[in-house]
């Protein structure tokens, strides 16, 4: 099935409202999922609707249960109350952007007790488009990644994201510290597709390309010891946010973020310097394909996605079909 952006947005919003989310929250979650699809992050796109349904069926709370746990003039700690993380992360950024626009040069936030907060790059780009630098990490749950040389899952997939403003598209670096994502493994298992070599182990610690065995075993850290070290750092910041050292429940996630105005350091024209970097990287290209900064081309991909119908995954299409008007 192929749907336009408008059709998919409306149907996904209606579906989420049917599940109990209010109209504003449903539209926000649907827009996030569609943006992920537009950026090529299919595992975080509309295919996540079935995962959301499964988590809700397991007893997770419907709606936005975000609340403030602790606050200072420049920091705030949130809890998601066991609800969906898209809305909790939205609350973090709404608070951060309000303070930055009103003259606070640097803010930090944490959040815990939420499930699924999507692609960190979407939030980081939002900050960078307004001229702010953003650093975010999220300790994800449940534990799915074995430590380097380990055989049992202890760590989350633990993404790291940095957004930096520029004159054109912001620079946005967003990467998982695991060799693959849990969503990709689940999708491969559902479609009975083999996994790439070297990304997972089975329950006994042996390498496997079988997605079902990987789900019972563990993912491996991305980049060996280096990725493992980064994952541990993210897990520690998740603990600072209130997450468990080795999370077992789906909602035991932790989010840590810092957003700042680059003017706080007293430098003039930081955006121009980032563009100098962009030009230097582009000039280093050895082929016609060129070299691009992470995040470059985002605007064009979104514009194209909003203009052309896109194929929708069969599982997501089955959920959306009754809500197409």
CATH topology of the largest domain: Ribosomal Protein S8, Chain: A, domain 1
Which structural class should the secondary elements be placed in?
Answer: alpha+beta
In the CATH scheme, the class of the largest domain would be Alpha Beta
Low-confidence stretches: none
**Element pattern in H and E:** EHHHEEHEHEEEHEHEHEHHEH
Number of domains: 2
The rounded distance between the terminal residues' Cα atoms is 15 Å
Biggest β-sheet description:
7 strands, mixed
- What sort of overall outline do the alpha carbons produce when their principal axes are compared? globular
Order of strands in the sheet with most strands: 2-3-4-10-5-6-7
Amount of helix: 40-55%
Task: Provide structural commentary.
This protein is α+β, with helices and mostly antiparallel strands and 325 residues long. It folds into two domains: 2-59 and 297-323, Hypothetical Oxidoreductase Yiak, Chain: A, domain 1; 67-178 and 221-265, 2-Layer Sandwich (Ribosomal Protein S8, Chain: A, domain 1), CATH 3.30.1370.60. The chain contains eleven helices and eleven strands. The chain has helices at 5-18, 23-38, 48-57, 85-101, 120-129, 182-190, 211-216, 224-241, 270-283, 298-307, 314-320, and strands at 2-3, 67-71, 75-84, 106-115, 133-139, 160-164, 171-175, 200-201, 218-219, 254-260, 310-311. The strands form three sheets. The protein has a seven-stranded mixed sheet with strand order 2-3-4-10-5-6-7. Strands 1-11 form a two-stranded antiparallel sheet. 43% of the residues are buried. The model has no long low-confidence stretch (mean pLDDT 93).
């Amino acid at each position: 099935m192929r749907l336009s952006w408008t059709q998919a947005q409306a149907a996904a919003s209606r579906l989420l409202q049917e599940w109990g989310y209010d109209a504003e929250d449903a539209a926000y979650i649907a827009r996030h999922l569609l943006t992920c699809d537009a950026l090529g992050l299919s595992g975080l796109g509309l295919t996540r609707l079935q995962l959301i349904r499964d988590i809700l069926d397991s007893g997770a709370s419907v709606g936005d249960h975000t609340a403030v746990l602790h606050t200072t003039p420049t920091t705030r700690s949130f809890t998601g109350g066991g609800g969906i993380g898209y809305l909790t992360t939205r609350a973090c950024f709404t608070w951060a952007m309000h303070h930055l626009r009103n003259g606070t040069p640097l803010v930090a936030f944490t959040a815990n007790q939420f499930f699924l907060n999507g692609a960190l790059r979407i939030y980081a780009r939002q900050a960078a488009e307004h001229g702010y630098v953003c650093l975010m990490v999220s300790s994800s749950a449940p534990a799915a990644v074995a430590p380097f040389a380990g055989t049992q899952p202890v760590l989350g997939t633990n993404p790291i994201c940095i957004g930096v403003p520029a004159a054109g598209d912001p620079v946005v670096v967003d990467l998982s510290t695991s060799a693959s994502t849990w969503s990709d493994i689940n999708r491969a298992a559902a479609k009975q597709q083999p996994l790439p070599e070297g990304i997972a182990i089975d329950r006994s610690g042996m390498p496997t390309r079988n997605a079902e065995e990987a789900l019972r075993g563990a993912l491996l850290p991305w980049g060996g010891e280096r990725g493992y070290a980064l994952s541990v750092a993210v897990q520690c910041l998740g603990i600072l946010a209130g997450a468990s050292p080795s999370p077992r429940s789906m909602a035991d996630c932790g989010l840590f973020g810092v957003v700042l105005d680059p003017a706080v350091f007293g430098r003039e024209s930081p955006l121009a310097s980032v563009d100098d970097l962009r030009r230097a990287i582009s000039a280093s290209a050895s082929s016609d394909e060129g070299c691009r900064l992470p995040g470059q081309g985002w605007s064009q991909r979104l514009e194209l996605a909003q203009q052309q119908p896109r194929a929708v995954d069969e599982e997501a299409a089955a959920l959306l079909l009754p809500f197409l008007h």
